[in-house]
């Protein structure tokens, strides 16, 4: 037990010393490496923003259809590829939801994982 505790303390000390060394090094805005680092960190954020905006646009297009219960549908978007999950109340609505999603600008492909679930009390 003492060995594990000692190893943990040594590991924590290494992490702290490494982070202190990184903080102590001067950074220059004119170096090409720092410019590359800044662009690398901003690219995923803009990709996530684009995915989030596309997801919202697809969901908004589905919500406009009053006869489709969009509350049971989830939309996942990644780089233009959209995945539809959830349930609809009628099998014919599945094709309509897929066509609606394909009609949204920015959608490159649609993966359909929708199923049919009748509302409670209906046969």
From TrEMBL:
Residues 27-43 have a biased composition (Low complexity). This is BON domain-containing protein. Residues 1-24 form the signal peptide. Keywords: Signal. Residues 27-49 are annotated as: Disordered. The keyword Glycoprotein does not apply. It comes from the Bacteria. It comes from Paraburkholderia bengalensis. Pfam families: BON. InterPro entries: BON_dom, Lipoprotein_DolP. Residues 50-118 form the BON domain.
